[in-house]
Every structure is written in structure tokens, then in C-alpha cells.
Design brief:
Blueprint lengths: L1 H6 L3 H32 L3 E11 L2 E10 L3 H8 L4 E11 L7 E15 L4 E6 L4 E5 L2 H8 L1 E9 L9 E9 L25 E4 L10
Antiparallel strand pairs: 1-2, 2-7, 3-4, 3-8, 4-5, 5-6, 8-9
Helix pairs in contact: 2-3
């Protein structure tokens, strides 16, 4: 279909279309192949350092700190105009003595990091809150994603308080939400599935009588 459109375009337009598609194809392949070498050299790019809950009435709130050592290939992709999705996810489990622990809930906080050339600004789009934050540098944008304070997780009013609870958290690239040029295909794999290790932490004593 693309070739048919080009055939009816002017020679100058055809050349520009071919050039644009060629550049996009080369960039896509390069960004799919590049991560393997860089990640092997740089080690773990994401690490959850601290995580804890607080309880306000029946609302469970999260504090989380992540160390992000942004790999070079991600910075290249952002600066080339591709929006890169990130997320942290938290899982809460109920301990059970005679059976496998039960996962109560999984909560995800999604970000979209991209560059706006016209504004010379890096943008962190907080998907859950529907807010955009603008920064002068990539480092500032990354730093914004490294900390979450008093993030409202969920209402515990329906929890079964006969169980003990624990939680774990991690930070990762949202592999499922990657833009099309970075998604894996039949022709090439993708190493854009970077994630931190799970960080396990204790829960605050969960009771509606415990309000802090």
C-alpha cells in the first residue's frame, strides 16, 4: 500500500517519504539490537531501595524510592522522539498457614517519558493521575520517577483482617506499552524488558482501628 501511494506522489515527495521510512527502520533495528551490549556492560539499571506503607483512615498509601541508572539506549530513544513507558507495580499477599499465600491485589503506576523538541522539554506523563510534568533535562525527568510519596493505593475496608499481609514492589519498562518501532517481532527479539528485582517489605499492621 505504501508503494502504491508513493507511485502517485511527486518525485520530491516520494524521495522524502522513502528517506523518512528508511531512517525510522534503521533507528528501530538499531534500538532493538543495541540494548543487549549496553545492558551487559552496565548491569542492573533499576533498583528499588525503600518501600513502605502508611494508613490514613482506611486508605493505604505508598512511599517508594527507586534508583534509576538510565541505560544509554533508552536515552537515545527518548531523544529521537520515541515515548518510553515505565511503571512500578506493587503486589500485596495474605499469608496462609496451610496453603499457598494468596495475592490480594496488584497496583500499577504508569509513566510515559518523552521529549518535546518544540519546547525543548522532557515530559513525564503520569498516566494514573492524568498529569504532565515538564523538565529542562533528561536527568531531571528521570529523577522525578525515582520517588513516590503518599501515593494512594487502595481502600482496605474489605480486607479480611484474620490474615497477616506482606508486599513486594518493582520498577520496570512497561514492555506491553512500548511504541511499535521497539516492539519485538518475528524478525528480531527485543531486550526492552528491563526490570528491577522484587523488593519485599513488611506491611503496617492492617486494622481499621490503626489510623496514622
Amino acid at each position: 500500500m505504501f508503494l502504491a501511494i508513493v507511485q502517485y506522489a511527486s518525485p520530491g515527495l516520494s524521495h522524502r517519504l522513502y528517506a523518512s521510512v528508511s531512517r525510522l527502520l534503521v533507528l528501530s533495528i538499531w534500538l532493538l539490537v543495541l540494548p543487549s551490549a549496553i545492558v551487559a556492560a552496565e548491569g542492573e539499571p533499576f533498583e528499588v531501595q525503600t518501600a513502605s506503607f502508611s494508613l490514613e483512615d482506611s486508605l493505604l498509601k505508598l512511599d517508594l524510592e527507586v534508583n534509576i541508572d538510565l541505560p544509554e539506549f533508552i536515552g537515545i530513544a527518548v531523544n529521537q522522539g520515541l515515548a518510553v513507558p515505565f511503571m512500578f507495580e506493587v503486589e500485596i499477599f495474605a499469608s496462609r498457614n496451610y496453603w499457598v499465600d494468596k495475592k490480594i491485589v496488584t497496583v500499577k503506576q504508569a509513566y510515559l517519558l518523552h521529549f518535546l523538541p518544540m519546547l525543548s522539554s522532557y515530559v513525564v506523563n503520569d498516566i494514573n493521575a492524568g498529569k504532565r510534568h515538564y523538565f529542562d533535562s533528561l536527568d531531571e525527568a528521570v529523577e522525578h520517577m525515582e520517588a513516590v510519596f503518599n501515593y494512594p493505593m487502595l481502600d482496605i475496608g474489605n480486607f479480611d483482617f484474620d490474615h497477616e499481609f506482606y508486599a513486594r514492589a518493582r520498577f520496570r519498562i512497561d514492555h506491553e506499552a512500548l511504541p511499535l518501532p521497539l516492539k519485538p517481532s518475528f524478525f528480531w527479539p527485543s531486550d526492552w524488558d528491563e526490570r528491577s528485582k522484587w523488593f519485599s517489605f513488611e506491611m503496617v499492621p492492617l486494622s481499621l482501628d490503626n489510623k496514622g
